[in-house]
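Listing S7. Sequence submitted for prediction.
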Amino acid sequence: MPAKQSMMYEGKAKKVFLTEDPTLVIVEYKDDATAFNGQKKAQIAGKGELNNKIASVFFRMLQTKGIPTHYVDTLSDREMLVKKVSIVPLEVVVRNIAAGSLAQRLGWEEGRVLPKTVVEFYYKSDELGDPLVNTSHIDVLELATHEQLVQIEELGRQINIHLKSFLADKNLLLVDFKLEFGVDEEGNLLLADEISPDTCRFWDADTKEKLDKDRFRRDLGSVEEAYEEILRRLGGFTL
């Protein structure tokens, strides 16, 4: 196992550490919870461990479907070994059901099923509040090449199909989710970051109970229990 060296980066929910292998880094998941671009903050006991295990399940499943990801291995309850990538400064949001900002922007009631999957792009900039951008903005800002953008959208749609099917067997609805992509040293575009209740909206298919970070955003309580329920439905995770 590559040894953890100096910390390269610390974000809202994760720390990234260099290893003696220049192509690999270790991601450590934190218990910090943030919402509304960091305006709301808290500590949720066990969240980092739960997200690490949940993301590991999703990455492993997607790799079996041929989706290229940065995931290499799960090292401990909180640590994941991944390929080092240069993150494309875009957040890719894939939506199946109206919720959150989309429901507000379109004036649709939350829970309305979209007739078609919607893919949105947001400029990764804390200073600007991660604004919604279109392909022309992305081109002007040189955030990604045309070829990368085509590949990113196609991968987003493929990931959506795989996740929806996987979760349907667990009686879960995939309302929407955020993806990030990165480029490795060989120029390959890889799914990066994480897939967890921090980055997805998961609802119980029958009751529509929210089992994701909206429980924190909206002060619904039982955040850790909701994340635990997701991991339980995924079948748990053992190293």
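Caption to Listing S7: primary sequence and predicted structure tokens for the chain studied. The chain is about 30% helix and 35% strand. The mean pLDDT is 95.
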